[in-house]
Amino acid sequence: MAIHESFLEPKVHLSDDPYWLIHRFFFVVLRYRITKFFLSVLLLASTVIIILQTLIILETFNGIYFINYFMMYIGSILVWFTTYSIPQTKNFVTSGIRDLHRWDIKSAGPVVEKSIRKTALYEISFVVVNLMVAVLGAAAHAIPGKNDKDFFLALVVFERFFPTFETPLTFLYRISYFASTLVILAPFHMTIYFSGHLRAQISMLVTCLQNLNYGYDKMDLLKSVYDVKYQKEISRRLKFCIERHIRIYSTGTRALSTLRNYIMLYSVGGAMFGIGVVLYGVTFQSGIQGNYLRFFCMSSSFFLTFLHSIWMGQMTQDVTSPMFDALQQTGWYYWNNRNKKMFLMFLLNSRRTFRLQYSHNVTVNYQMGVSMLRSIFSMLTVLAHLKNDYYLETNSH
């Protein structure tokens, strides 16, 4: 029996998770002690490398030198931060999923189940493609190149501070790229997992709202105003939906608010890394030659993550619109005054939206995506003009 036919909390057996691949890869794997051990080693190694890289940059600082290593320096900071934040993000998301008291996706009928599975399939496909590109990029970075010391500041660190162990440290550093790429993407995919389940639960609640008058469609609606049994049943159904809405909204808001600071740091770090890629690509075009696969995979993974985050943020923001529309189309005008007051309060609260944001004015959505793309395009245009002016001035002398 579908949930909207009884308006009773379903007995849920969550044997079927539409986002099972993300759960297995980014939640189940983190339970193992060996995974926790590797994360601790990676965090410690990243801390040491960042400190030594900072010392070298401060000691031999100049504009060209900084631009040359800026991209990989920011990348190492991103690896450190994501490694540090993975346990916290996992705990926040796991707690949020538990507090949702999820309904099974079959609870609202086959149509809603098919819609949820379809959206989950799109998101999982996106995640798989992104992971494949990231692993390919890790392999490209692990393969030695001709001018790697002009690209990886960590190799300069090994040569200068650990000359005796330079070869094994270089090998371990290259191999660590496979772990680093997955670590950087882990918190992002954990957020996708929570957002997907949040939207799925709201979709099933919307089905209940669309069927508040289920079973009474053929009755005389004029007589229903004085039908005590009908009014009591509507009151029960409204209370059921309101309680479910309160649980979903409070859980979602609490989890997203907790993740706000992390979202801000992920966004700022990702934006700085993207700027580093652009700066290196425009300033050191000769350095790209022979490293096309590295730059292609790096840029593609960054762009795919950026697109998915914008899409996820917009979908999370828009998820409450169907709820408000469903309530508006409900035949509330034949309810008694008590039910109408309850309905009006519910209608007003249903307009509150979920937002992936890191400040009250900045939200992850399509508008933010367009603004960032415009900024990147403007920066590329300015850099191209500056580079042309520099070459013209150099050739004239």
UniProtKB/TrEMBL annotation:
- Specify the species: Zophobas morio
What lineage is this protein's organism placed in? Eukaryota, Metazoa, Ecdysozoa, Arthropoda, Hexapoda
The domain of life is Eukaryota
Instruction: Recite the UniProt keywords alphabetically.
Output: Cell membrane, Membrane, Olfaction, Receptor, Sensory transduction, Transducer, Transmembrane, Transmembrane helix
State the family named in the UniProt similarity comment for this chain: Belongs to the insect chemoreceptor superfamily. Heteromeric odorant receptor channel (TC 1.A.69) family.
Q: Name one GO molecular function term.
A: olfactory receptor activity
The membrane-spanning stretches of this chain are 37-58, 64-82, 124-143, 171-194, 262-280, 292-313
**InterPro entries according to UniProt:** 7tm6_olfct_rcpt (IPR004117)
Question: Per the record's keyword annotation, is Protease included, yes or no?
Answer: no
Keyword Hydrolase assigned to the entry: answer is no
Q: How would you describe this protein's topology in the membrane? A: Multi-pass membrane protein
Q: Which GO terms describe its biological process?
A: signal transduction
**Where does it localize?**
Cell membrane
Q: What is the official name of this protein in its record?
A: Odorant receptor
